[in-house]
Design brief:
20% strand; 31% helix; globular; five-stranded mixed beta sheet; 7 helices; Purple Acid Phosphatase, chain A, domain 2; four-stranded mixed beta sheet; single chain; alpha/beta
Length: 183
């Protein structure tokens, strides 16, 4: 029993968020987001995330005033944040590291809860390298049809996350896998 408790103490909770698009004034129109979506996102981090957690951001962090939004974001997020760069994350990796992100990549694969989990902004091509691909990019609207080559990649191994479906709050990796993979 003591070993299990120690192991749980060491195991960090992993949270996921995506497509925050801080500073993007057209998100309420394009994705039917509330006008205060940025505040809701920030409040969700404060409400759920602890200092010893890890937050994986699946890209498209900000749309304008990247530096200002990075300051605001890291005043609300107490943990380490990994950024999986999206199509709007055009600054250098060093820029993001300097602003507070702990890790930067285009995609990563980690083993967690018995699965090889790939994290990316856009869906990855299905491969034997991962059991599941958690990605963002498509939001909650049909703009994905403008990128048919991405639609062709989608398989049952792909899990789309959209903050619009998540009440603008981060979700744990465990809950995503539990809902989709029956952890």
């Amino acid at each position: 029993m003591l070993i299990l408790m120690e192991r749980k103490k060491i195991m960090k909770r992993m949270w996921i968020t995506t497509d925050t698009h801080f500073g993007h004034l057209k998100m309420p129109t394009m994705c039917d987001r509330p006008e205060d979506f940025s505040k809701r996102l920030l409040d969700g981090y404060v409400e759920r995330i602890r200092e010893d957690d890890i937050l994986i951001h699946l890209g498209d962090f900000a749309f304008t005033d990247h530096e200002g939004w990075a300051k605001i974001f890291f005043n609300h997020v107490p943990c380490k944040v990994w950024l999986i760069k999206g199509n709007h994350d055009k600054r250098s990796d060093f820029w993001y590291l300097d602003k507070g992100f702990s890790f930067i990549a285009r995609s990563i694969i980690i083993k967690r809860f018995g699965y090889k989990v790939a994290f990316s902004h856009r869906p990855l091509v299905d491969s034997e390298n991962f059991d599941v691909n958690i990605h963002g990019h498509f939001h909650n609207n049909d703009h994905r049809y403008c990128e048919p080559y991405l639609l062709d990649r989608l398989t049952p191994k792909h899990i789309l996350l959209a903050v619009e479906w998540l009440d603008y709050k981060p979700v744990t990796l465990e809950s995503v896998l539990d809902k989709n993979m029956k952890v």
